[in-house]
Amino acid sequence: MAKNRYYTYDHEACAFVELKDRMRRLRIQVAAIASLAIVLALVLTWGIDHYVETPQEMSLKAENAVLQAQLRDVVERMEQAAVRLDKLAETDQDLYRSLLEAEPISDDVRQLGVGGADPYAEFDRYSPSAASLLRTSSRQLDRLEHQMNLQRDSYRELELLAGQHALQLEELPAILPTDGPVVSGYGLRDHPILKIRRMHYGLDIQVARGTPVVASGNGVVQEVGRGNGFGNYVKVEHADAGYVTLYAHLSRFADGLRKGQIVNRGDLIAFSGNSGLSKAPHLHYEVHDMSGRALNPVYFFAPSMTPVEYQELLKQSEQGSISFD
């Protein structure tokens, strides 16, 4: 038995058409419209993602711009700080280390070297502008940290050296140990008692018996004794400065003076006299290095005297040909 067929009148074609053909065309039209709608939706979504910014995205973009500007400002400030640190390093090298006789810091140590793998490779995952800025700031920060650590260590070393230098200056035998004219200096002299010409290893300072004698620099009393032609004598060791001073032909010692006692420059240690091989009351004063080699005491007085006073003292020490001892 044949299937029933259904027709409908197509006004556009002015004819009856079978209903299933019309349905098929309708489905095709709907499918086409749906496909077009999907394509349009995809295009619209892509456009929104790429060209239309949400308020949150706009806020983040503005925030990122501000942060990059701030980071560029920080980089500039770090560069300025690095320049100032370089100037401090120059002063450190040319002035402080020269004055304190410290070893200079080599250029290899001052330069920041980074070997091996790239330490800033992690920034490559960002945009080129951001990666460049992050690399520059990190490199500058590493340099600043290196400079500051190096300068800190240098100043600690210089502080220690300055402290040692201050001790040395305090111990330097830089003042006359008693108040009187220098009548005989360092050099070959005629001995008034032995009647021979021999080396005079110190200064003879003419003063009356009982004139106070003071330590010429900070130190420790090494000897309090009598003999060797010096009569009563005192030796003071100035270990940090590297010298030993001798005070001879004394009449007596300061009350309580003993070996191992700490004395400061200007402290009373004895009184002048005429003991030992001495022609007249005076103080015989010598300066030795730590190996026992005698040095001209006049050369140590410059820090405590004006140039005129020093030249006058030097002239006095050289004019006599006979010593008092």
Write out key terms for the chains shown:
325 residues; alpha+beta; 3 domains; ten-stranded antiparallel beta sheet; two-stranded antiparallel ribbon; 5 helices; 14 strands; 43% helix; 21% strand
The count of β-strands is 14
Strand percentage, roughly?
A: 15-25%
Report the principal-axis shape. Answer: rod-shaped
Low-confidence stretches: none
The arrangement of helices and strands along the chain is: EEHHHHEEEEEEEEEEEEH
Question: What would CATH call the architecture of the largest domain?
Answer: Distorted Sandwich
Q: How many distinct domains? A: 3
The average pLDDT is 78
Distance between the termini: 164 Å
CATH class of the largest domain: Mainly Beta
User: Helical segment tally?
Assistant: 5
- The CATH superfamily name of the largest domain is Glucose Permease (Domain IIA)
Largest sheet: 10 strands, antiparallel
* Alpha-carbon Rg, integer: 49 Å
State the helicity in percent bands: 40-55%
Structural class: alpha+beta
CATH topology of the largest domain: Glucose Permease (Domain IIA)
